[in-house]
Amino acid sequence: MNSFDAETTALATAILAASRQKGWRIATAESCTGGLVAAALTDIAGSSDVFDRGVVTYSNAAKSSLLDVPEALLISHGAVSSEVAAAMAQGALDASGAELTVSITGIAGPSGGTAQKPVGLVHFATAVRGGAILCHKAEFGDLGRGRVRHLALLTALNLLQARLD
Fold it and tell me: Which DSSP letter does residue 81 get?
């Protein structure tokens, strides 16, 4: 039995199938989701032929040391920004053998939000080897930590699926 709901499992299964068909491998770079995207993909039996790696970079230091996110970028834009999400996606691509990456950085709450960056703000990026980095911003609202993280998981999976289509 899978650990995720039917929608998550169906998305993850479709992503793995599309990746197999393209001969692509996937890597994830996650902050506020704490590895949920990697967990959803690897919850599917046989995912090891597609899933390369996942890294959880919760702190700015981890983003810099593991994904080569420039410290100046973190200072000037903050960890929760499209610029940092893009750098995380590129860093995951550079550090892996993957052809496709997704990154997530946001504020799940209940604290940590500001007027400029409220609880529920999440930035995503997908990167394709030899292709463009696409950024996506979601403002889920202060729905509770678990709900924000779940919506971020679904959004990330949908963004991966869109890049595979």
Answer: S
Residue 35: left if φ>0, alpha if ψ -120 to 50, beta else—which one? left
Distance CA 154, CA 42 (A): 15
Neighbours of 139 (CB within 10 A): 11
Q: Domains in the chain, start-ordered, CATH in brackets?
A: 6-164 (3.90.950.20)
The 8-class DSSP code of residue 3 comes to S
Q: In this structure, which long-range contacts are made by residues 47-51, counting pairs with CB atoms below 8 Å and at least 24 apart in sequence? A: 47/12, 47/16, 49/20, 50/16, 50/19, 50/20, 50/24, 50/25, 50/26, 51/16, 51/25, 51/26, 51/27
Sequence letter at residue 73: L
Residue 62 and residue 43: Cα distance in Å, rounded? 25
The model's confidence at residue 2, banded by pLDDT at 50, 70 and 90, is confident
pLDDT tens, residue by residue, 7-29: 999 999 999 999 999 999 999 99
Confidence (pTM):
0.97
- The three-point CA angle 84-111-157 to 5° equals 50
Q: What does the alpha-carbon distance between residue 79 and residue 72 come to, in Å, rounded to a whole number? A: 11
SS3 category, 71: helix
Q: Which pair of structure tokens corresponds to residue 144?
A: 């509770």
